[in-house]
Task: structure prediction
Amino acid sequence: MVLGGDEPTGSLVRPYAVTRGRTRPQLEIALEALVETTARGRSGQFLGGREQKVIVDLCGGGRLQSLAEIAARMEVPLGVARVLVADMAADGLLAVHEPTGFGDDAADETVGTELLERVLSGLRRL
Amino acid sequence: MNQPADTSRVTSAKIVIAGGFGVGKTTLVGSVSEITPLTTEAIMTSASEGVDDNNLVPDKATTTVAMDFGRITIDQDLILYLFGTPGQTRFWFMWDELVRGAIGAIVLVDTRRLADCFSVIDFFEHRKLPYLVAVNCFDGERLHDLQDIRDALQVSPDVPLLYTDARNRESTKQTLIKLVEYVLSMRRTRTVGVG
Result:
């Protein structure tokens, strides 16, 4: 993959073909949100297509993957992965664990401080 | 099935690694990441706002922005991601998403190209994202006094500024620790101020 950055790469049609052209996800999912295959997803009975099978396998082994990892490992743009994951979450095939936001998005100051302390001790153990 | 007993508390957090093109962001991410840094791409069109589902503007030129990132498992239920910013600071549309909810940022600096990070620092200050400045020390050479660099960048005395070696795991680890300590100390100061 070329990281050159700013060259026009052509039409949007091809990357979004797997979402049948939709560019808007059913729900906003953060880059770092963790995705986990549900029991329903693992059963394999309700999967719509090849992409859904790939995502269910990626996020099913007890090792959660972020939205960014799913996009990178599938080699699809982030927006495409977001539409696919949001659809599958709506169908109960995936569970999405939202990140703990900091700054303006912080839900709760105490929760944030506790989490920072956990991150700090985790980094020290590395 | 190898399934975690309880994943209801699972969450993640992220730290942004910023700096000019070629300064060593991906090297820094790779030095502590438990996975080989991955690349994710976002597509931007000039009409990326307000595109409706039936109008994909297929004739418009699009731009692909790439970001490298890594992962550190802090605990079974807490994953930390390190996201490198796109090299070109003009792709601000992606920066908004990168910064949203982040713990803070490391601004990686090459003293030969200090000016590359001016716009980055402006952006973080405007967005009130805590950051520290890490001077990437190529081949162990510490060519400049840190105070001179602070003066040149015009960052406040509160902002931590230190030397780092992006290739070195221990050095990167210490830089990350410094950032999280700084963010925690800012929180404590704020709490005291309010109380």
